[in-house]
Amino acid sequence: MTLRPTVNGQTQTSTTAGDGGTFSYTVPASLLLPGANTVTLYATYNSGTNVSDVIKATINVGSLAFSNVTSNIAFNAKLTGTSATIAPSSQPNISVVDTRVTGKLWALSANLTGLAASFPGEVVYQPGNGSVTTLSSQDAAIDTGSSAAITDVSKQWSSTWTDSSSRGLFLKIPSATTAGTYDGTITWSLKNAPS
Predict the structure, then answer these.
(1) Do 118 and 147 sit in the same domain of this protein?
(2) Is the pLDDT of residue 144 over 60?
(3) Which residues contact 60 (CB under 8 A, 6 or more apart)?
(4) What is the pLDDT of residue 18?
(5) 120: domain CATH number?
(6) Which residues constitute the domain of residue 145?
């Protein structure tokens, strides 16, 4: 007997029955697409003259992606001649959608490029536990999570900076900062994390 599989309409390599006439077929992960995948199986025997009923199965593959990333984050600071830490003018929205199987983990990171070397300040991320991470050209860990329909990463971010327990993105400027417009690019990365 020969097992004849198809995945999403594409014929796959057939396999022959093992001891006792049983079959085993593993669908290669590389053939599965996000969403619904159709797998059909049927067996032939007697040199293909006899054909079994077709068995059809659906394999749903989830995905990990951003559902929203604010495209422009602005820090409007009024210079007073003293150093300051400033929250964004409007709260950014960074959201993750994860429809993979329960228990899968993800990690969110960010890096900052293109900020003029003449800018004396820095963009930082504070997780709210007293630590501070300066964004640079190297990826900085922002958050982690596990599979859930949608996770609003920035939901708990502070709209103002009060102290090291404030959570979110902030602009730190020293007292010598001069007025001007400074632009940079924050690149957000979302990766599957080991379980």
Answers:
(1) yes
(2) yes
(3) 35, 36, 37
(4) 75
(5) 2.60.40
(6) 64-193
